Amino acid sequence: MNNTANVIVDRYSESIHESLNILVVGATGGTGRATVEKLLNEGHNVTAFSRSANELINMSDQIITINGDVTNTTELDQVVKGQDVIIVTLGISENPMRVRICGAVRTPSNVRSIGTRNVITAMRKHGVPRLVVQSSYGVGETRGLLRFVDQLFFNLILKPQIDDTERQEIEIRQSGVDWVIVQPVHLTDNDSNSFPFISTTGQTRLMKVARKSVAKFLALAAHESDYIGKSVAISG
Question: Which helix (H) or strand (E) holds 234?
Answer without folding.
Answer: strand 230-235
